[in-house]
Amino acid sequence: MEDKIYDVIILGGGPAGLAAGLYAGRARLDTLMIEKEKEGGLIVQTEEVENYPGAIEGDTGISLTQRMVEQVDKFLANRLIDTITEVDLESDIKVLKGQKGEYRAKTVIVATGAKPKLMGCPGESDFIGKGVSYCATCDGAFFEGFDVYVVGGGDSAVEEAIFLTRFAKKVHIIHRRDELRAAKSIQEKAFANEKIDFIWNSQVEEVKGTGLVNSMVIKNRKTGEITEIKADENDGIFGIFVFIGYNPITELFEGKLDMKDNYLVTNENMETNIPGVFAAGDVRDKMLRQVVTATSDGAIAAVSAERYIECKEFGC
């Protein structure tokens, strides 16, 4: 057990956590950032970032977050990798137990983000990494010259479909509705791309294969028609990339923090129902989940944590 008591512990190293770390560090708060895997969060999977103010042309999720990390490191020296397994948030001193150690702080900022939502059909889990993927930039190159199917119709799905045309022979977007939900500017790019076609009003019912994905069953939601799509005989495989939304990573806080549909509920100051505990980024219940709102949340959470500590120590 570490005897040290930090001013702030930030859980998560995505854009929200990094922004919180920047603001906490500049405020000279004794801050620890704990990330389960590596900094960056879901944005590192994005090939092109066009909607973040000040982004450089050609910016990727990786390049943008790398600059964030470098900026944070100027002010925040304490960053480590650990998986937190248990939390005690009720006391004035918050205790977080991890696989590598135990950490204590006056305040906690939860910026654990979200993880890709699964289709939930038979065969999906069996073929993750064997044809089923949730990250185009991670796995797109593996399907060079093959057919690829993208499931979803929002910004992420259509943007990643466009990216996958760099590698795939053809990209087929499967969407539950008869029109896309992506921003119009993104839709225009997709409709103009000759390598993209669309399978409307449809959902994947089953994923099949022998070792690797080579067929899937889809259902037309309007007609009920069932179709089995099989890989080209010369290929023997195709890729399925799923972008149908995300689930917040909040299991650790069940029964402890107020939630709505598993997202953490906060006020405009990022305060949860427990004093001294704040939340920021995709883990929050809010209307828009983008990098720009995540960084805003992180900044507000850090400032709120600073004011909370001042009030506890000097009164308000």
Automatic annotation (TrEMBL):
GO terms for biological process: removal of superoxide radicals. It catalyses: [thioredoxin]-dithiol + NADP(+) = [thioredoxin]-disulfide + NADPH + H(+). PROSITE patterns: PYRIDINE_REDOX_2 (PS00573). It is an enzyme of class 1 (oxidoreductase). Homodimer. Binds 1 FAD per subunit. Residues 6-298 form the FAD/NAD(P)-binding domain. Belongs to the class-II pyridine nucleotide-disulfide oxidoreductase family. Its EC number is 1.8.1.9. This is Thioredoxin reductase. The keyword Oxidoreductase applies. It comes from the Bacteria.
